[in-house]
Amino acid sequence: MNDNRRREILERLAALRPAPQSELHWKNPFELLIAVMLSAQTTDRKVNAVTPALFERAPTAAAMAVMTPGEVEGFIRTLGLYRSKARHAVEASQLLVRDHKGEVPRDFKALTALPGVGEKTAKVVLNVAFGEPLVAVDTHIFRVARRTGLVPAASGSTPSAVGSFLERHLPAALLTDAHHWLLLHGRYCCTARKPHCADCPIADLCEFKEKTSSAD
Predict the structure, then answer these.
(1) Which residue in 138, 148, 175, 199 is deepest, having the highest Cβ count within 10 Å?
(2) Active site residue: 138, 177, 211, 216, which one?
(3) Which fold is adopted by the domain 3-19+135-199?
């Protein structure tokens, strides 16, 4: 696949969702950071169900930094890995207070130095909260990128490699929203088990050889 075809794919996805938004609910960069940390191996819907009460109790890093992990657990017990997530949320908040005056830094290295914050989480925060042209690769984007041919198999063996390739080859003007377009396309159309190829807006540009029909 060449870059012209990659551009056309993004332009078609953009036409469907001109102003894509994260499906996580948040009001400030701190809330987004915590919500993304909580979303690992859990659906956005489940995260959105627990964060209103949590953020009412701790709307800032300073407020969460003085909570115990056990207190945070009480708010997020319905989520997978809730014990480690609670510990990381408190520890990350404490470091934000200590090193960044309670603010979420607009810096990849500083973000990934926080407990529980890896490359994907850092890129989501930088992209969604600060508008940085980065592609945070989750399971949906990884699948879509490799299945469609947006990223050649040889160039995308890991999520990090897929993200780096997309950031180099997608049009700069479309890169900021590319994360959402690809994620939502994977979540609702190019699904893991039974992709909706018959209804796909980019089916004719996609290199997937086992396309499904409307009868499948």
Answers:
(1) 148
(2) 138
(3) Endonuclease Iii, domain 2 (1.10.1670)
